[in-house]
Automatic annotation (TrEMBL):
One of its GO terms (molecular function) is transferase activity. The keyword Transferase applies. Keywords: Transferase. This is Group 1 glycosyl transferase. It comes from the Bacteria. Residues 454-463 have a biased composition (Basic and acidic residues). Residues 251-414 form the Glycosyl transferase family domain. InterPro entries: Glyco_trans_1. Residues 441-463 are annotated as: Disordered.
Amino acid sequence: MSANPTFAFVTIGSGSYVGSTVRDIILANALHRRGFKVVVYWMMECKPELVADGIRQRMLCYGPRYHFRQPSEILDKIVGPLLFLFPARERVRIAQGMPGYVDRLLGNLTSCLHRTPDPDPLLVKRLIKFMALDGVSHLMMSFAAISPIALAAKKNSDHPFDYLVTFQGDEHFASYARKAGLLPEFRQRLKDVVQGSPWPAVVISHDYLDRIVEEMGLDRERLRVIYNGIELARDNEKPPFAVLNTVFPDLKEDTPIVSYVGRQESEKGIDLLLYAAKLLEVRRIPMQLVVCGSTAKGQSYRNAIVDIADHLRLAVHHAGQISSEIRDALYAHSRCVVYPSICREPFGLVAVEAMNRGTPVIVPDYGGITEVVRHSDKAGGLTFKAWDSADLALKLEQLLTDGMMHRKLSSQARDIAAKFNVEYMTDAVLEHIGIGSVRRDPDDICTEQPRNPALRESHRARA
């Protein structure tokens, strides 16, 4: 292996995986800041604005490649680049305007990579070519589910490299494999790719490790937990409240705000929050409810939120994707941030971001998200019984009415969030693969901000 490592990140920049993409690019940028050579290989969609200046980016494949059940080189090489002549927002609008289309692409991708031990040979050939051009020594795979191409490249390439597998959303791919009748093959491929790497695979929480072992039958000894990291806020000043009124003109500063920030998809349980908010309204507990975030699979669930709120006669300050400036202001001015997911979340990036601003969070007592709100005898938020809107209402009521509890959780929130510093994540990954850091002055590393201003937009959409 090269004495001067070059890292290549293979990641998907679309669908339900935006949070995973953010994690990968945060790590890529941190390695770049430390002096390592880094490249990013995008699959299906890209988010170039997240990537620091000086990092090479290449399109490994475009989404249309998986328009059909078999990968299409013609659609990939011709239609894909033509679609990218449109702005990203327009591409997303077009894809979401076709119900089920994103699921179809991801389902076809999953089938192509797991149906046989020889996954998408032409894509593997392209990956080998890119790695040789860039001198890649360490291939960082965003998901175990796309790692069959890494194993195939290693078997078929004369270029020396190793790859690291990360589990951080592979339950979505498992669902596609199950629908295609390929779950046994999917499980076998995961075992193969984990075994084919010299390092245990990275898993982003202890609960998610348990889930992967239980559901995929993997060897626990071949998995290691490394938590995700974020760029910690440098100051504690609240942005002006007026910033929020540019998106939410009717929002009032003198009434407590309860916020949901994240993807507006059915698995996120936003309807539970609506029911809980209605229960509090009946109890005459004042609050304002804000719901915002992008969608990955179309507008159906967002429209359902509007319908449910209308039937409940509940006022909701509702928006789609918001900028990082609005997001940070919302975190800072919210009484609490609620992430009511009904699925077993691998991690909880939104919860960490909110606590980083000193804002308590409420999350379900289910999944890896519970691990981000408590450390030792400190807590930065509360947990509620999963899927239970009445218990969520009770926890909300406590944070809205118990000033002493709120102050205690708020005072501890930043300390909890500091556990998830991007530098800790980067140190852990480098130690895991046996590479020493090429840091400059440690003080620079801890305080340096991304040079590209667009990186401050890096969490505009969530997984």
